[in-house]
User: What shape does this take?
Amino acid sequence: MLSHLPDALALLFSLEGILVLIFGTILGIVLGAMPGIGSTVAVAIVLPFTLTMGQSSAILLLLAVYAGSVYGGSISAILINTPGTPQSAATCLDGYPMAQRGDAGLALGWATVASVIGGLVSAVVLVFAAPYLAAFALNFGPIETFALILLGMTCIVSVSTGSVIKGLLAGMIGIFLSTVGGDPIIGEFRFTYDIWQLYSGFNLLAVVIGVFALSEVFVRASAKPTGVSELVDFRGVILPKLSAWRGRLRNLGKSVVIGNVIGVLPGTGAATAAFISYAEGRRSSPNKEAFGTGEPDGIVSSEAANNAVTGGALVPTMALGIPGDAITAVMLATLTLHGITPGPRLVEENPTLIAAIFAGFFLINLLLLPLGLLLSRVAAPILRMREGFMMTAIVILCALGIYFVRGNPFDLIVMGVAGVVGFLLRRQGIPMAPLVIGMVLGPTLELTLRQGLILKDGNFFAFFESPIALVLAIVSLVALALPLVRAVLASRAAQ
Amino acid sequence: MNIRATLGMAVAATCVAGAAIADSFPERPINMIAPFNAGGGTDLLLRGLAPHFEEAIGGDVFVSNMAGGSGTVAASALQGQRPDGYQLGYFSITVSTIQPQIKNVPYGVDSWTPICSVAASPTMLIVPNDSPFQTMEEAVAAIEGAPGEYVFGSSGPGAMTHLTTVAAFAGMGVLDKIRHLPFQGSGPAVKELTAGTIQFFGDTEILLSRGDFRPLMVFNDERLEGYPDTPTASEVGIEPPLNELYLWGGLFAPAGVPEETVAALAEACETAVGSDGFKEFAANSGTVINHRGPEEFDAFFRAQYEANGALIEAAGL
Amino acid sequence: MGAFTREPVLVQLGVLAIGCALYLSTLGQTFSDVGSAHSPMFFPRIVLSLWIGLAGLALVQSLRTTDGQSRPHSLLRLAILVLAVVIYSNLITTYGFFLCSVGLALVVLPIFGIRHPAIVGVYALAVPGSLVALFNHGLGMPLPTSPFTYLF
Assistant: This one.
């Protein structure tokens, strides 16, 4: 593929190519940064335009908007605790406390650098290792995926600030919410009580926006009104000093690897990667005690991983013609419209185009840094407007965003109710991040568990004949048991 | 001039020339609903059709998405809309004929005014290139020799990919000797077909160009041009109504749209589907154009509704 | 008995009760027999059992701790806001995005202490108005419209 790089670069550095990359990235960041509006809506907005563009421009525009909106999502997650996408939910955990402490600019600085590095590394990995990674993905059948999702579930323990019982409870509520609607194996409806609006289940984004963004509006309304107060003290992104990275590089590297590996596996996604990486960061970081209170390592873990997924998800897409997530599915469909057949021979048959996509992806990640800095300066005054204006805009934008996710009016009601319930639960110290993890991982957990049981004639223990599944299960057990053992030892020592 | 007089004149004008109302029909934008997410196959087909439809009808047309419940949410919502011709849905065989017979949805065979069919492709039973089975007979013999050993996949319960394999194995009388493994969407299922977790899959011709796969039989009334060596289901010995299965889709409006409006929409649809622009789009995206007018489509739709009942019975849905 | 009127206990009791009710609703249902596949209720029952168990534990925890919780500054203000948002999310598809958003802004702005009539009016009209103009008429991705006109 490298031999086609010159042609690809010529394609990119045309006037149209550069305009598409810059415009797409800016649009993505701006849309992603708006509370309530995430990647799904951002991509839906540009999709009609891509139909009339050339093939490489169309794909690059989608990629730029997507990567931009994932980065933009971390802006609203950090500044106002409203993730636009589930994958930014892990960023809230430390980003928002840091912003409340008055370090909003610095928190965004950590997020920016981590995002850019995560994206760049994954772009390089994509170019050199795509075929090997694709072969690895083929070894991951339903049973192995089940074990991986189980490992993801253990993150609930690490993101449960306060009480682990309440965190697990929130996780169970999340998993339950994901089971409402059609059964994945025989298709019959569950918990719908003959209300057809419930047939499509609870939309993940509607719940996420409700429990994070809307409940945040309620939380602010229950405080004493100040009227004139600024929402956040934010004057633009401040990049962390090089010396501040000392002791954090290992965490960064590990997060990038986690993001890449999980991105390669179809059907897992960026939110899973962000949470697993956050949990691993919390387990191994020298600053683990500070996680959840505004620790840069927490932001770095989440952001580096969720951006690395973008590149990882392109691997099965390009090497096998199998979409790695919802957005790569849109890209594949767009390719088909331009007469290009996705499949194992995609790279062989369209080497220049694919090289242009890879190189474009690298450039987009490079662009995130200057454009992020620039846009945050421009946007800072808007964010400093009075609380009331901001809160009104948040509610309206959330409704708009959720309406466009899948055009389902019922999702709006779900968002409203989730906001109220989320507010009530938050007041009792029940954390919302585990609920999101449960909802993200629940469907895959159930599907793969039951697929595995079909394949193994109902024998659950036969799952662990697969070495990958066995290793992952042991790691999950250790991840669960270690904090407990430590706690017991600590209490013994105290006596 | 009072309102009654205006109405009277309008009615008179309609009687004199039906074309008059057709001219005035789209007074505001027409909404075409894709029952799946933006960027999916159905959505893109509709977005490919919309500009040509817009041109043919002489008014604005926009595509919106309403996803969820395997397409039933959009159909359920559309069914309750005013039948004024401004709300159309693009529904496939599964949304319009399968789902209402297996699920408790608020719509059925009489809820629609079919406008026109747009596309239809016969489905095929597909195996990986390195599969040991060259013919249907070999596959059936192997399945009978090792009941419960082989697995077929689908993109979800009740999806076209599921019904195709059910038609194949029920038609051959071995459905109870093979396991069904549903996935969430085609992507993961195709991945497992490549990896070998599942041995059989059912889909249209498009899938064959996307990987190292080959067909064992085709659910068409004759052999396909591109695959002259692949037998039809009837040749292999599958009896009607399981021997023909097409993934088709078309535009539907809620029941009770006035005849003049149906005529205007149908005419626009015929022009749009027949346009060079849409033909080029179809060739690029692997869509097999299959146009039917309102009466013909209505009859076809009702016949399919009946026939698919047998299939649903066989699938045990 | 005073413990049962405290907000944390009430909410935890509610969570427990919902879990139990959902579990009970899984018992009476019958599904078609599908051979090797498990019942659709197989997985939800596991999850709901854990839900009930954990909710019970959390309830016991809340009964034991008596530390007070910060009360909302003004319950009335909060109640109006919550009501406004819930009504808003229910009415958008019936009365259109524009009209509902204008109404919402007229309620929410004063709640957050912005009371100047001119500012409230301009903001309430301008924000939804520009969004509707952009999406419905600029991008061709219409938001829900009112029953009165297809323009907004």
